[in-house]
Amino acid sequence: MAPSINLKTAIPGPKSKEVVARREAAVPSGLYKAHPIAIESAKGALVTDVDGNTFIDFVGGIGVLNAGHAMPEIVNAITDQAQKLLHFSALVGTYESYVALCERLNEAVPITGPNKTILANSGAEAVENAIKIAKYATGRTAIIAFEGGYHGRTLMTLSLTSKTAFKKNLGPFFPDVYRAPFPYEYQCAMCTNACSGACADQLEKMLLTHVEPSAVAAIIIEPVQGEGGFIPVPPSYMKRLRALCDKHGIVLIADEVQCGFGRTGTLFAMEQMGVEPDIIVTAKSIAAGMPLAAVTGRAHLMDSVHLGGMGGTYGGNPLACAAALEVLNQFQDGNLLERATSIGGQIRARGEQWTKQFPGIGDVRGLGGMIAIEFVKDRSTRVPDPDAVAKVSAYCLQHGVITMRAGLYTNCIRLLMPLVITDEQLQEGLDVLEAAMKSL
Fold first, then answer.
1. CA–CA distance, 148 with 224 (Å, rounded to integer)
2. How many helices (H) and strands (E) does the chain have?
3. 335-357 and 423-439 helices cross at what angle (nearest 10)?
4. How far apart are CA 166 and CA 35, in angstroms?
5. pLDDT (tens digit per residue) in 198-247
6. pLDDT value at residue 188
7. CA-to-CA distance for 355 and 434, rounded, in angstroms?
8. Whose C-alpha in 84, 261, 275, 411 is 20 to 30 A from the C-alpha of 394?
């Protein structure tokens, strides 16, 4: 079979350089770009730039394209909807696709009903709504978030987000937010090797030393940290978290913006945690690239906000709803979920070889098809090596694979290839990634 990677020019090519130069002249420099290429089209797991170079996509729009680039069924659903209704606004009236999607999500989430859903435009906006709901429902103000967590870049969500690189010179931040240690087994100083629950003990201690539990409205956690380095929460930890919330009447919010919609091998990662959250926040792959997010939770919580206390002009746009409904259809038969598990298994198999072969590979981890490779300078000390990640990512681009970094220390390569990627494309891309490791 012919290789999927097809490079016709140096990377970046002349046309990409031209478009990127225009971007740099027209767009603020604070908008990060991982790679100096300009994209013209994409299909499945392949991306073609304006110079005609074809790459294998291991980023998937940062977890937005679990169902793949331009899946025909989703494109048709958007096209059909566009011919009927482009926009109306749920604040003005009601349309079928908004209601149908909310009904589907209410049934799909791993929360015992009755449930309700409100739609928004982005993960950050949905997180803001989830926090608002928790505060209304409990009459409390404090929020507990976690080290390494990422929840967005608005004022409220940036206050919840942990990594200082996103927060530099942007304070003061939202008050009454408290930070708990996350069960990051590989880089944890509290435990040796396997998680012993010391970080959960520390969280419980916080309710004595930092914030009174009767003041806490919500605990928000990613079942698998995204930007933090694809770190799954041990189910035992999540169970302790659920028990703590039950004991003190705290709302448990699962932020599944990046790990949701099939990436981990189940539609929601919380399905693998053994407990139910009270609210789930979803976005990214919910609509295959269309701007959409959702807050789904227990009806009595969702109904707590006063009339007019939530909403936005574009939230639940008809085109995005049509795309999301088709995404749910694509996941319905389970093939994409099985594919996520298969992809993860293949990467882990290669990862076992890499950890034996390359001393700079500290950890290969994740859940389902959400896998990260953590690079370290020394395995004995586990000192992070972000420079190695930068070199690996640059090498991959030059050889036809698009990757992206992640991690609290920016020392991880995150793998979020579309779940429709073929085994041949996956292995071809992993071969390039392995060659990049050898190049170090």
1. 11
2. 13, 18
3. 20
4. 19
5. 888 899 999 999 999 999 999 999 999 999 999 999 999 999 999 999 99
6. 72
7. 11
8. 261
Q: How far apart are CA 125 and CA 356, in angstroms?
A: 43
CATH number at 74-332: 3.40.640.10
Task: State residue 284 phi and psi, 5-degree precision.
Answer: 45, -105
The pLDDT of residue 151: 97
Residue with the two structure tokens 């009601």: 94
- Domains of the chain by residue range: 14-57+334-439, 74-332
- CA nearest neighbour of 11 among 33, 29, 35, 32: 35
- CATH class of the 14-57+334-439 domain in this structure: alpha beta
The one-letter amino acid code at 137 reads A
| Nearest of 44, 82, 153, 62 to residue 423 by alpha carbon | 44
- Tokens 């090519």 sit on residue: 13
Is it the case that residue 1 has pLDDT exceeding 90?
Answer: no
* Single-letter amino acid code for the residue at 404: M
Dihedral sign computed on CA atoms, order 422, 386, 152, 363: positive
